[in-house]
Amino acid sequence: MSKIYPVDPTFAANAHLRKADYEKLYAESVKDPEGFWGRIGERLEWTKKPSRIRDVSFDPRDLHIRWYDDGELNVSANCLDRHLATRGDKTAIIFEGDDPSESRRISYRELHAEVCKFANTLKHLGVGKGDRVAIYMPMIPEAAVAMLACARIGAIHSVVFGGFSPDSLAGRIADSTAKVVVTADEGLRGGKKIPLKANVDAALQRPGTNSVETVIVVRRTGSAVAMQSPRDRYYHALMEGQSADCPAEPMEAEHPLFILYTSGSTGKPKGVLHTSGGYLVYASFTHELVFDLREDDVYWCTADVGWVTGHSYVVYGPLANGATTLMFDGVPNYPDFGRFWQVVDKHKVSLFYTAPTAIRALMREGEAPVKKWSRASLRLLGSVGEPINPEAWEWYYRVVGDERCPIVDTWWQTETGGILITPLAGAIDTKPGSATLPFFGVQPAVVDATGTVLEGPAEGNLLITDSWPGQMRTVYGDHERFIETYFKAYPGNYFTGDGVRRDEDGYYWITGRVDDVINVSGHRIGTAEVESALVAHPKVAEAAVVGCPHEIKGQGIYAFVTLVAGEQGSEELRKELVAWVRKEIGPIATPDYLQWAPGLPKTRSGKIMRRILRKIGENQPDQLGDISTLADPTVVKNLVDERLIR
Ligand code: ATP
Ligand code: MG
Q1: Which pLDDT does position 516 carry in this prediction?
Q2: Considering the domain boundaries, does residue 255 fall inside one?
Q3: Which of 13, 271, 492, 589 has the fewest CB atoms within 10 Å, i.e. the most exposed one?
Q4: Domain check: are 392 and 264 in the same one?
């Protein structure tokens, strides 16, 4: 039995929604999606109100997903202009730099003016509706300005995480045939400079990138960088003399807003395409309810704008809601491991949203760096990106939140545009490690490998049986791949690629990607479950589990284990950990192989790339596939050299 944390009555007393509200609204949302989403769509300002709410078919032979189809709106006007009358002087963005002495506040009025000027700049450079603009930036307000300026004129942005290499950047520029690249001279992370402009120069040497006409360079560090005339232009110079008057152009609801490449945990990144109306309805609605947003909240999501979380929950959701959103250009361990909490105190952050990888890294450093700061302003904590193991959940709750802040473990994907499975802090009791229940309008189903829908408590693959407004519309330039990847395996349904367990209370537990679910003697074992058990051991800092060939069981369990600082791997400890997993989960989950891992291969968004570990476990180290999105490719060599199956 897993532990239950009931809704805190004090929190619920002031929350947007309580338990009965959730049940009533959820029932309505799935019974009458037209009526429900029609009403919710009114939260935005439309220049032409939609009369057709949804037009969807998940049939692979006639696949189409359209929301608010005949409506028109401008996304940037919804994030800026409509707040000016009531929130003009409210802080839209708090910028906190890498150096703790650097921060600034930008009001809605100021942000609006800056976006208008930059939109005029883009127009002046010949960028128009439908053109693609690549954004390769640090976490500075100009990144949000660039995104919103694109939205204002109907250009499609493609944000590429500033930590990516020239090759990864080049691939994304080529795939989207971008006309303009917006970048900075250099980034600054953890006191180290990142040569963004030089990376752009290198990327533009690669084949397929000659669509780029202009590179716009924001001065971040002020270091001298090579500027190639007439291609390269400084942002500040271009902005000079631009008018702050740039009427927002109405766009069709289904006009593309952005392309974003997935993080590549499972294979070659896909250019996920999101459109305007449905996306903004969904991002803003989930942002308001999942974080129980209030007018005076200071909201901080630590994700980079290079990931979908940075799109929906740093920029679009919060700004559409008129919230104050914090953009952090630093890292959790610089100048020290207390940085997050120092920033929380400095700006009185009330809502905080981060990833399990960050929580586990901080947990390893103990409580002292957290306890040094008051964190009194915090009232809700969120998690996203990977399954959060109960051990880390409990630590987040107890140490960071002082047992006072509810935790929302939000499951979603780049493809979904917004959160699909999540607790609502005033309405849904939580269980550490479970993303709990579906958000409004979201209809999950659990199926076995043959496609049979399983009822009640069950374990299998996670499908979503009907559309929601934030759903991706296509893979940019490759609609067949879209249909193939998401709609062919279980026709009539959206296939998430994730494995899931639904418990006796109807709660969902993401068990990992389907490829990572291991079939041991016919039993489905989620990698997340075995990893949680390992991490619960006091000497284990992190663990990754994959399947490996096994003569008798079909598949065996292969675990990679990183120990906490100061611990050494020994035969004795190996036995202890194997016994520990047997005790925690049961003999069926006994690891067959346990390898010590000084480091684990992770994507730049911090996710463990199990597909690489799987190849190592299968003794196929020459078939690691695309590793261009790895944060640190050097960790792979050690794991290959030390592999236990040869
Ligand atoms: P790619 O699709 O290119 O392999 P990716 O799936 O890592 O990359 P994202 O869209 O950033 O790219 O991540 C979505 C995935 O992250 C989900 O499918 C799920 O596996 C995992 N995930 C996200 N949030 C949670 C969560 N709260 N609990 C469990 N898993 C989560
Ligand atoms: Mg994915």
Answers
A1: 81
A2: yes
A3: 13
A4: yes
The closest of 602, 588, 589, 459 to 530, measured between CA atoms, is 589
Q: For the residues 251-260, what does the mean pLDDT come to? A: 98
Residues 352 and 480 in one domain: yes
Q: Number of H helices and number of E strands within the chain? A: 22, 31
Residue 515 Cβ < 6 Å to ligand 1: no
Angle made by CA atoms 333, 339, 343, in degrees to the nearest 5 = 150
ipTM tops 0.85: yes
Tell me how far the alpha carbon of residue 191 lies from the centroid of ligand 2, in angstroms: 31
Q: Give me the mean pLDDT over the 26-32 stretch.
A: 98
569 appears as a binding residue in the annotation: no
Same domain, 234 and 91: yes
Same domain, 483 and 526: no
Closest CA to 324 of 292, 350, 286, 289: 350
Instruction: Give the tens place of pLDDT for each residue, 110-152.
Output: 999 999 999 999 999 999 999 999 999 999 999 999 999 999 9
Nearest-ligand number for the alpha carbon of 307: 1
The Å distance, Cα 376 to ligand 1 centre, comes to 31
Q: Is the CB of 435 under 6 A from ligand 1?
A: yes
Identify whether the C-beta of residue 535 lies closer than 8 Å to the C-beta of residue 560.
Answer: no
Q: Is 386 known to sit in a ligand binding site?
A: yes
- What is the CATH classification number for the domain harbouring 537? 3.30.300.30
Closest ligand 1 atom to residue 409 Cα is: 27
Residue 498 beta carbon below 6 angstroms from any ligand 1 atom: yes
307 C-alpha to ligand 2 centroid (Å): 12
Q: Which atom of ligand 1 is nearest to the CA of 263?
A: 8
Q: How far apart are CA 72 and CA 279, in angstroms?
A: 13
Of ligand 1's listed atoms, the one at least distance from the Cα of 528 is 29
Domain identity same for 51 and 176: yes
Among protein residues, the one whose CA lies closest to atom 6 of ligand 1: 265
pTM for the whole thing?
0.94
Domain containing residue 587: 521-642
Straight-line distance from the first to the last Cα atom of the chain, in angstroms, rounded to the nearest whole number: 39
Q: 631 and 490 in one domain?
A: no
Q: Is residue 430 in some structural domain?
A: yes
Residue 413 near ligand 1, beta carbon < 6 Å: yes
Same domain for 159 and 274, yes or no, is: yes
Nearest to 401, CA basis, from 470, 352, 450: 352
Q: How many CB atoms lie within 10 A of CB 14?
A: 10
Q: Does 228 count as an annotated binding residue?
A: no
528 lines ligand 1 (CB under 6 A): no
Residue 540 is labelled as binding a ligand: yes
Of the ligands numbered here, which is closest to the C-alpha atom of 413?
Answer: 1
Best CA proximity match to 220, nearest among 136, 323, 302, 278: 136
Q: Strand order in 407-409's β-sheet? A: 103-107, 91-96, 324-328, 298-301, 351-354, 380-383, 407-409
Q: Give how many domains the chain has, as a whole number.
A: 2
Starting from the CA of residue 435, give the closest ligand.
1
Cα–Cα distance between 115 and 76 in angstroms, integer? 9
